[in-house]
Amino acid sequence: MSEEAVEIDVNELGEKIVRVIKTIYDPEIPVDIYELGLIYDVMVSTDYDVKVLMTLTTPNCPVAETLPKEVEDKIKTLDEVNDCEVEITFEPEWNKDLMSEEAKLELGML
User: Which Gene3D superfamilies does the UniProt entry name for this protein (predicted)?
Assistant: First the structure.
C-alpha cells in the first residue's frame, strides 16, 4: 500500500473515531463529549493504534473513572482500530469556551 493510501485510511479512521466519540454523552449535560470540548486530540498511527487526549469538566468529575473507559471501549469496537489508549489531562483546564457553538446553543448559552 502506498504511503498516500495509508494517510487517507488514517484520516478516514480519524473521522470514524470522532463519529463514535459523538455518541458518548456527559451524564450531567445533554451534549456529547466532543461538542462539549472534552476531546483535545485524536491521534491515529499508521498501525491503527489510537491515542485520545481528553479532559473532564472538573478533576472531581463523578465519571472520572468510567468516561475515559467508555471512550476507549467504544473506539475499540471499530474493526480498523488495533488498540486504543485514553489519556486524561487538565492542561489546559476545561472551560465553557472549549464548547462548540452547537453545544452552547443546546445549553441555551447563545
Answer: Fe-S cluster assembly (FSCA) (3.30.300.130)
**Strand 83-88's sheet: what is its strand order?**
39-44, 49-54, 83-88
The Cα–Cα gap between 69 and 66 comes to 5
CA within 13 Å, CB half, 83 = 4
Model pLDDT for residues 13-47, shown as the tens digit of each residue? 999 999 999 999 988 888 999 999 999 999 999 88
Instruction: Residues 3-100: name the CATH superfamily.
Output: Fe-S cluster assembly (FSCA) (3.30.300.130)
- Nearest to residue 91, comparing CAs of 60, 50, 51, 56? 56
Q: Where are the domains of the chain?
A: 3-100
pTM as predicted: 0.87
**What is the Cα–Cα distance from 52 to 80, expressed in whole angstroms?**
16
